[in-house]
Structure to design on (584 residues):
């Protein structure tokens, strides 16, 4: 039995993959808690797709993909802010427009290179077993930045998310805080790119947090439970991908979804079965 | 968050804890709601804002806390423009527009009232916790402190937000229709809170449909209808002439010595809703009581036949 768990670990790429997947699981779950409480799930999904052009350009230029993705994500985040400012265009409309446009642009750029199909599938669905030491370091740094900023801005982010009217009364800089939230979301999505890819990033962001929401009734426990579910999904998913020989990103997301369905059915207070 | 530059232990009267509204105009996209509004709330005054539906009562409150930009004019608190004071205004909107499924407890929400007094990483200290406890106790929800907010009744929810406002240690307390659609316990708790705020010398501005309450519980009455109609002590402001100017003669019904204000719209007028989209005459408030001292009361269409 124990060799089932230890065997894969003799390979360095599997060790790196596990560390990366757990890091991503935790960071996404913590940020995802804000995302679902603020109703930004659609934005999270959109942003993941919208970073494709940045990734594609970095890929072609031979630069670091994460940095390309980061630039694109922040550009899209701020672009959504600009388009929807003052209510000219509704925010979800702005998101829809930019998200589709960026995805189209990204695919167009990718289609100009020869190894298009294989490369695109890595970008769309992740390639956690191809993570390099450098990628791992960058993931850890970006993840640490996201978590530290969340801790530093805990009180204002909580007030803004729960009661924007109080945020105004307390004279918080709500515009700055909203943009900060978008940038944090962008960073989180970029970090999850290598594990689950553009197509499944939203799942890592939303599913563990949504599961935790069904199980606990306070914010900090919710984040901790979400992080635990995210990490557990990453580990179980990666082993499943190893033994069943399926794509790792999909395996991780499927495990996370199973956790969600279990919680949905058996949650003590809100579960589908608890309601009879 | 930033520090509190106006500690609440400034002796009463030592500074002008007052609100100056000078020539304020405010509205929503292309529609002016309030114009030419000028008044001053002295330190420690309790004032009631009264006016028909759509008079701009809620709009006034939103402008006072900075939720709506001013088209012109200015608002001064302690003689300084809006925004110079970080935490001395507490505001209870008519309806709390929050997500009641948000994973926070009653105590968490009330503790947010202290956030304006805390630095970035500072956690609520002993004094903050004591103030939160005291506020919970005063609003009669101490036993609900560790409940999730989605387990509360409407009146309890309102008291949570009153407790939070109290925990802010505000110099100016703004409440928009706190007596509407709430249970008796909450009404009484709110009235007790008013007395408590008077002891603390807090300046209070409340909008209400209840003219009787405005006349008996407040130092000043501010009669509003898209502009200032009258402002001053209740017995000066709530005369027939002013009421006609504010509510329109068609809405005033004389019943013997008692003056009634019919709150419902006259036939054919569909825009009787409050400008913020709230329906005024849905409220079952205790406003239909006769007021023996002033002879003023208000009624809705529902009881028109009976009272007229």
């Amino acid at each position: 039995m124990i060799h089932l768990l230890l065997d894969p670990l003799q390979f360095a790429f599997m060790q790196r993959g596990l560390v990366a997947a757990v890091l991503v699981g935790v960071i996404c779950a913590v940020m995802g808690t804000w995302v679902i409480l603020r109703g930004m799930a659609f934005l999270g999904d959109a942003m993941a797709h919208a970073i494709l052009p940045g990734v594609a350009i970095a890929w072609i230029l031979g630069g670091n993909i994460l940095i390309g993705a980061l630039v694109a994500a922040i550009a899209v985040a701020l672009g959504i802010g600009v388009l929807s400012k003052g209510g000219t265009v509704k925010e979800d409309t702005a998101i829809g427009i930019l998200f589709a446009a960026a995805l189209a642009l990204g695919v167009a750029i990718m289609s100009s290179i020869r190894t298009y199909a294989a490369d695109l599938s890595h970008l769309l669905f992740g390639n956690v077993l191809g993570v390099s030491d450098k990628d791992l370091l960058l993931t850890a740094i970006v993840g640490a930045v996201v978590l530290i900023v969340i801790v530093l801005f805990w009180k204002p982010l909580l007030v803004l998310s729960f009661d924007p009217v109080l945020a105004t009364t307390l004279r918080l800089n709500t515009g700055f805080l909203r943009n900060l939230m978008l940038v944090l979301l962008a960073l989180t999505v970029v970090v999850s790119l290598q594990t689950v890819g553009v197509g499944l990033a939203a799942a890592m962001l939303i599913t563990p947090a949504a599961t935790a929401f069904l199980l606990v009734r306070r914010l900090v426990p919710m984040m901790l439970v979400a992080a635990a579910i995210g990490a557990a999904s990453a580990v179980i998913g990666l082993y499943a991908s190893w033994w069943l020989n399926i794509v790792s990103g999909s395996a991780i997301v499927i495990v996370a979804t199973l956790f969600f369905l279990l919680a949905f059915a058996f949650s003590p207070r809100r579960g589908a079965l608890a309601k009879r | 968050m930033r520090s509190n530059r106006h500690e609440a232990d400034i002796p009463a009267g030592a500074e002008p804890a007052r609100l100056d509204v000078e020539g304020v105009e405010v509205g929503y996209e292309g529609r002016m709601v309030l114009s030419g509004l000028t008044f001053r709330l002295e330190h420690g005054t309790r004032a009631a804002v009264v006016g028909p539906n759509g008079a701009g009562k809620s709009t006034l409150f939103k402008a006072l806390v900075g939720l709506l930009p001013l088209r012109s004019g200015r608002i001064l608190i302690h003689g300084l423009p809006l925004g110079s004071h970080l935490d001395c205004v507490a505001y209870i909107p008519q309806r709390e527009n929050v997500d009641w499924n948000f994973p926070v407890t009653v105590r968490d929400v009330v503790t947010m009232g202290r956030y304006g007094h805390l630095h970035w990483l500072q956690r609520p200290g002993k004094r903050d916790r004591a103030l939160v406890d005291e506020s919970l106790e005063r609003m009669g929800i101490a036993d609900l402190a560790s409940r999730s907010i989605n387990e509360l009744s409407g009146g309890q929810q309102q008291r949570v937000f009153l407790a939070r406002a109290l925990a802010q240690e505000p110099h100016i307390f703004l409440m928009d229709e706190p007596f509407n659609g709430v249970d008796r316990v909450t009404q009484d708790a709110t009235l007790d809170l008013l007395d408590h705020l008077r002891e603390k010398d807090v300046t209070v501005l409340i909008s209400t449909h209840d003219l009787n309450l405005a006349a008996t519980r407040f130092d000043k009455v501010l009669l509003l209808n898209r502009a200032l109609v009258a402002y001053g002590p209740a017995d000066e402001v709530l005369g027939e002439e002013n009421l006609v100017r504010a509510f329109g003669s068609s809405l005033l019904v004389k019943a013997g010595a008692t003056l009634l204000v019919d709150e419902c719209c006259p036939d054919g007028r569909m825009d009787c809703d409050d400008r913020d989209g709230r329906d005024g005459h849905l409220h079952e408030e205790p406003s239909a009581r006769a007021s023996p001292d002033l002879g003023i009361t208000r009624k809705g269409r529902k009881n028109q036949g009976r009272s007229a």
